[in-house]
């Protein structure tokens, strides 16, 4: 309803429900003083009102910002921190974990706020000839960690360096020289550190840790053993297989993990030197030795795992990580002859080498016992990277891997370079061997059916997309132990009694 005020020319649009709103109707603007001038005191009142409301709004905004920053600071202040440095063959990564204790239990949150990581290449084993060189990269990783932990918390935050297969492949004295350099850096880092916290962990431990983070992410850790998910990890220098087996497992492969009120009897083994990078380098020696008979006379041996047209350079040898340097000498005698099936057969023959020494009921790889895989599995690291590269589906990724490998291995190198212009040669080169190696390992050796829906490739898992990195599993167990110690309950978390067997 609109009322017209004859004197002011102002239309009051008022409605019983709405506060009165003043409208000036067009053409009714009067310049004469006859327009109703407001009394002086009204102006002052509205100016005071405006100032008071601005100050109130400003104070309100300040309070909101302060409480947000305070709660963020409180969150960080209430957080505890733990740092793990993973010394892998292809790189060294630092993981910084923030966590809190709620009613005696650690609460893990691998979101951005509580978790950060940084990877530096090359890995520790690349410094075999120059152990002192390690200090630079470890120092850079420590500095990354210090930027994520409040200064006042450094002394209460433990830092560990846990090296894996790349270091296991070095001679013990060289391992110790490299570890001593890392200990010197960690000792002066300001974090809580003990000498024994810089070590080469056993492959079996590495597998258990990866199993722990996968089942934590999937929510099955602490649940029924046969409802847990196994892990197969194709790393750079080693491959881990870890899962709950209902078969009787010889003690050298058996691990007991007590978590919550549940005891898990795990099969866990790390196939040292059967990581993808190590296997690909071993293959050149294997091809040379096994095909010497039918080489082309001048000692040239066909290499079915390298696409035709690629010139295998001897300078690849100087690019090899420390533990592989001596393998490079065979590269010069190889000739690229890309063929997926032949590469798959060569990889399978390499995986079966030493089978005659098998003293168990059955051996799937070399003379090593592996129970028949049972239940669901996540296939990580190179299983994931290569499947991603070929854009394989979730369901039939193994059958698709064969098709993709056939195409890739059979393609001429010059065409692959045009198709994948952004890839460095040494990275693009890996995919023919990788596809064949994956099939020869999972299907030909471990007996996974090509259409088995229970095995999926992944790099993350669970609703929170938790990274499937064994270091997160090590952190979970370390913290759980710490918590149990902390709350006075001394319960066995991880039966490490037989870890000594792996240390030698
Ligand atoms: N194709 C591809 N491979 C990758 C990528 N990032 C890492 N890799 C490879 O994946 C493997 C890394 O797995 P990791 O477990 O981290 O290997 P690592 O820790 O360096 O070696 P280990 O000591 O055997 O554990 C190595 O073979 C890397 O070369 C990537 O983006 N693409
Ligand atoms: Ca690794």
Fold topology:
Elements: E1 2-5, E2 10-13, E3 21-24, H1 40-78, E4 80-87, E5 92-102, E6 105-108, E7 115-120, H2 134-148, E8 158-163, H3 165-168, H4 172-187, E9 198-200, H5 203-218, E10 229-234, E11 238-244, E12 254-259, E13 262-272, H6 276-291, E14 301-303, H7 316-319, E15 334-336, H8 340-352, E16 363-365, E17 368-369, E18 376-381, H9 382-390, H10 397-410, H11 413-419, H12 425-428, H13 430-445, E19 455-457, E20 460-461, E21 466-467, H14 470-486, H15 499-503
Helix pairs in contact: 2-4, 5-14, 8-13, 9-13, 10-13
Residues 88-91, 123, 164-166, 235-238, 275-277, 381-382, 385, 389 line the site of guanosine-5'-triphosphate (GTP).
Descriptive key words:
binds guanosine-5'-triphosphate; disordered N terminus; 21 strands; globular; ATP-binding; 39% helix; alpha/beta; binds calcium ion; 6-stranded mixed sheet; Nucleotidyltransferase, domain 5; EC 3.6.1.5; disordered C terminus; 504 residues; nucleoside diphosphate phosphatase activity; nucleotide-binding; 2 domains
What does this molecule look like?
This protein has helices spanning 40-78, 134-148, 165-168, 172-187, 203-218, 276-291, 316-319, 340-352, 382-390, 397-410, 413-419, 425-428, 430-445, 470-486, 499-503; strands at residues 2-5, 10-13, 21-24, 80-87, 92-102, 105-108, 115-120, 158-163, 198-200, 229-234, 238-244, 254-259, 262-272, 301-303, 334-336, 363-365, 368-369, 376-381, 455-457, 460-461, 466-467. It is of the alpha/beta class. The protein folds into two domains: 79-200, Nucleotidyltransferase, domain 5 (2-Layer Sandwich), CATH 3.30.420.40; 227-463, 2-Layer Sandwich (Nucleotidyltransferase, domain 5). Strands 4, 5, 6, 7, 8 and 9 form a six-stranded mixed sheet that branches. Helix 9 (382-390) packs across helix 13 (430-445). Mean pLDDT is 83; it is low at 1-36, 314-320 and 484-504. The protein binds guanosine-5'-triphosphate and calcium ion. Calcium ion is lined by residues 88, 164, 235. The site of guanosine-5'-triphosphate has 19 residues, from helix 3, helix 6 and helix 9. Residues 1-37 are annotated as: Disordered. The active site is at 206 (proton acceptor). The chain crosses the membrane at residues 47-69.
